[in-house]
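Please think about what follows:
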Amino acid sequence: MRLRKQALGTRNLIGTRVEEARKKKGMKQKELLAQLQVNGVDMNASGLSKLEGQIRYVTDVELVALADILEVSVDYLLGRETKDTKK
C-alpha cells in the first residue's frame, strides 16, 4: 500500500469518504475505476487518486456513481450523515 505524498487538498468534500468506503469494501482503486467505467464515468487512475486526495473537483455524475458503487448515500459522501448505509 502506497502512502499519500501530498497533503489533502480542498477541492472536494468527498475524497476521504470515498477512500474510506472503498477500503471498507475491500476494493482497490483499479476495481473502483472499472466499476465507474461500467457506470459510464470515464476516469483514469490519476483522476481517482486526485479525487481521493481532494485535489480534484467532482462532478455530480461522478458523485452519484460513486455513491451507488460504494453502496453509500450521497449525503454520507458529502459528510452530511455519519452512517455509511445507503437509504
